[in-house]
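Usage

Read records sequentially. Each one opens with the input sequence:
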Amino acid sequence: HCYNPEIQKMNDIDTCAVMFKYENGMLAMVDTSRDAAYGYDQRIEVFGEKGMLTAHNELTSTVELATTEGHLRPAAMYSFPQRYVQAYHSELTEFIELVRAGRGSEAHALEQVAMLRHPSVVRATLAAELSWKLKRTVQLAELDKLCAAGSSSSETDSPGNGPVKNMFGDSFRNYETSPRQESVAATYGLMHRNQTVEFVQEQQEKWLKFNKGEFTVMEVITMLDELVDDSDPDVDIPNSIHDFQTAERIREQWPGEEFDWFHLVGLLHDLGKVMALPKLAGKDALPQWAVVGDTFPVGCAPAEDAVVFPEAFHDNPDYKHPVFGTKNGMYKPGCGITKLMFSWGHDEYMYRMLKFNGCTIPEHGLNMIRLHSFYPWHDKGAYAQFESSEDAETKKWVKEKLKPYYACLWRRWYCPVISLWLVLV
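and closes with the structure output:
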């Protein structure tokens, strides 16, 4: 419910109660009100088979008046700055300690492990918000499907609230009015103007030698702390956090040990973006338009009704080529999606690198990495003229992906190091 008219104008609420039910039968209730007359209300009760756990509000004073008429207690803390002053102090202190310790320290490694819990917290919060908007119970197992359908499905709409939102409050894959619109449009404009057959061939010759350095998976993930994807309208966080979030989401949806390769795919899928880091690649670092974003086949006409920012293709040298500018281009119908030459980027590079190193992840898992950014195909159904009989299964797994545990997986599936064509500077 919303009691505060100013908050109500933002289509938000100020008071709610959330109930959680776990598979083992445990029940939890969270009550919160950020505009209660008696202070900032935030309480939790957890009921289990052998007992109960309760956390009450912190009060402004420990003084309590008791008379024959009863007990009079002080109000709750007013808001975050008062209630969580010690937490903010501890957070800032730990941040300073991490900076002093340095990236290679044990403290930093422990912080990376601690980050693994964050995606689960975010998912629980999102499920609670969806439950309010949909006016029904929401299972965590259905969360990805609801989010994916958020921008188009009427199921996730409720009067005054609108569709499911991303972390900026916008519909997912909003390429028209997102807060990151300027950088996203500029990145795709350069990509669609410059990704040609000749350019891709040059990059393949340059990057597929894999002879300039070796890094562990965790080292590469840490490097990606420095990268925020300029093609993504939904995410404004370091890519390393996105990698862990994706892997944890897949592990929750596919928990069996027989799918541990799938969990690993989620962790590895974006690591090829290190090609954009000047700190590591020096003068050979690529601009983001040659590394990130939705991919497409070069050597044939773009599917302009299925790609974002299609007008930029009109300035691409291949657009009016007598062969590359035609629908089928240099390919035969039915040749198979994996036979296409894709725009150069992190997907193709990571796929080739894993193959070069003899990674034993199943082929459909490797294809997830290679094709996960090929949205015009797996999301819009474009380029279907090139599909072979095997591509239906490939598409199924690619779409599934878009909906100290990892260390043992790296060893099991033979990913001890990642060989990169990088120069340390």
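Summary fields computed downstream for this record:
- The two ends are 56 Å apart (CA to CA).
- The domain at 1-64+71-83 is CATH 3.30.360.10 (Dihydrodipicolinate Reductase; domain 2).
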